[in-house]
Amino acid sequence: MTYLCELMAQRPMALAAHPPPHPPLTQNPVQPPAPSPSPRITVSQLTCDVSWCTLPPNLNVPSIISTNAESKLPVITRIPASFTDNSLLLLEEVYESEFREFAGIEGELETLDIRQSQDILDRVSRETNTKPALVYIFFGSPNDKIPGTRSVNSARSQLNRTPNATDTLEIFLVPPNGDLIRVSYPGLTRAQITETTQRFVSLVVNRSSGYLNSSQQVYKWLIEPLESELKTLGVDNLVFLMDAGLRSIPFAALHNGEKFLIEDYSIGLMPSFSLTDVNHRPLKESQVIGMGAVQFLNNTPLPGVSLELNNINQIWGGNIFLNENFTLNNLRQPRQTQQRIVHLATHSAFEPGDKSNSFIQLWGNERLTLDQIRQVNWDAPLVDLLVLSACQTALGDREAELGFAGLTVLSGVKSALASLWLVSDEGTLGLMTNFYAQLQETTTKAEALRQAQLAMLRGEVQLEGGNLVTPQGKFPLNEELKKLGDRSLRHPYFWSGFTMVGNPW
After folding, report:
1. Is the link from the previous residue into 381 a cis peptide, with omega within 30 of 0?
2. Is there a single domain that holds both residue 259 and residue 295?
């Protein structure tokens, strides 16, 4: 008899890809216990052919898998890369078609297979001295009578249907070389994942000290089954490609009971590997076009914007367009080839419904909506990095998540740094000032973001004595921000919502 079977991995070990110079930090003086590690069942002696495995006659796998489904344990498969071209191709087609339809992109586009994807990851690894891996996370149908017998082809058809609360969780790890790892949760549903992730995000956004339990639970589901393989491979950069409902998770704030995910990995979010410009080009010789506004007709003021733009200009040089000069006309002005970074310090919103509902607020009544964003011609010459420093996303909404995760596809830029929620002025000022300093020191954009986030987590970036204190020095605050007094920026609310979208390298 032939089944699609699951080869269980060994119990994972703690990672140390980027050991922090200080002990791991949390907001609670007493560390709550982490969720207990998931038990593992080992199924061996399998002869695999295109993710279908022939079981030895003396192995009673159905009873093992049934027990696993009832207890909601992960089922882990090691799949030889040479056998999985079709599987990854189907997953890529799903994500690619979803974002192409949302962005209104027509024409032919090659969908990358596993060999091409791993070749690109290997090249990026050599060019950037980092070790990236792709992590596909999606929901599939629970209809199979024997959990684990579902093929990726059937998962593809499920991804194109209306989401169902009983859909179950699936994960694919694609490293730069070697085998793929597939994780299936036959007993873990979309409804359970959604409830926990929404609680986690809500606690972080509201600056609660009680976010760790839900953070650790999400970590246990999404990261823990991959830990052993990630450590063995030396992976230090995780690029997430995710299904609807998962794209607004602040992965940087996931916690394993000892430390945050960001303490071991730089993190990126891609709409689709095939839709992303994956070429690496260092930014060190680039210039920044900085634009923004302090006052708004229908939004709250952003008193830190002028400081934010001035601090960035001190570090990188370039041009600043503030308040009445922050217009659509100036945004459309031809750029010089070296002006490869565009920083917009203003309110932006990714809203439910049509793309025209989502916008970047300019001066006065002017808005740049997502359905008009291609008119700015950020692809000629190519903008390597677009930064939206005051974003707000309708968390959990499919269209809003498509707008956020598909920002690079919609705008034509290579990479975008944006926030999942509206971070306070002082938090944004702290992160952006340090991020641009790190961007001159690191080899990838995601690593620059990681270092900026770690500095905030460790208390190295804070408001103190009328200054913004950073590892690079002190930056004087204006009168509005001085009123806040001394302030810590260590809580994940201030730093974990910032996400590198598109090409993280």
Report:
1. yes
2. no
Q: Is the domain of 378 the same as that of 239?
A: no
d(C-alpha 313, C-alpha 317), whole Å = 4
Tell me: do 297 and 237 sit in the same domain: no
Q: Is residue 280 part of a domain?
A: no
Which of 269, 300, 327 finishes a domain?
A: 269
Residues 173 and 214 in one domain: yes
In a domain, 17, yes or no: no
Residues 6+ positions from 29 with CB-CB distance below 8 Å: none
Question: CATH number, domain at 407?
Answer: 3.40.50
Q: Which of 2-11, 192-201, 385-394, 396-405 shows the lowest mean pLDDT across its residues?
A: 2-11
Confirm if 427 and 478 have CB atoms less than 8 A apart: no
- In terms of DSSP H, where are the helices of 134-211? 152-159, 190-205
Please give the tally of structural domains in the chain: 2
Instruction: Say yes or no: 185 and 306 in one domain.
Output: no
pLDDT of res. 157 = 53
Q: What DSSP element (H or E) covers 490?
A: none
Phi-psi region of 485 (alpha: psi -120 to 50; beta: other; left: phi over 0): left
Question: Do 154 and 226 fall within a single domain?
Answer: yes
Q: What is the pLDDT of residues 422-470, one digit of tens each?
A: 999 999 999 999 999 999 999 999 999 999 999 999 999 999 999 999 9
- For residue 182, the tally of other CB atoms under 10 A from its CB is 24
Instruction: Considering only the C-alpha atoms of the chain, give the largest distance between any 2 of them, rounded to a whole number of Å.
Output: 77
Please compute the mean of the pLDDT values over residues 264-268 and round it to a whole number: 98
Q: Is residue 332 part of a domain?
A: yes
What pLDDT, on the 0 to 100 scale, is given for residue 338? 93
CA distance 410 to 422: 21
Range of the domain at 454: 288-502
Give per-residue burial for 461-494: e unless 16+ CB within 10 Å, then b: bbbeeebbbbebeebebeeebeeeeeeebbbbbb
Task: Please tell me whether residues 317 and 260 are part of one structural domain.
Answer: no
Which alpha helices (H) appear in 104-159, and where do they start and end? 114-128, 152-159
Q: Mean pLDDT, the chain, as a whole number?
A: 84
Nearest partner of 239 among 160, 74, 125, judged by Cα: 125
Q: How many angstroms from the chain centroid is the CA of residue 45?
A: 36
Are residues 304 and 235 located together in one domain of the fold? no
Would you state the pLDDT for residue 336?
92
Q: What is the pLDDT of residues 138-168, one digit of tens each?
A: 998 776 433 344 444 444 454 455 788 999 9
Please answer whether residues 118 and 152 qualify as being in contact, where contact means their C-beta atoms are separated by less than 8 angstroms: no
Q: What is the pLDDT of residue 456?
A: 98
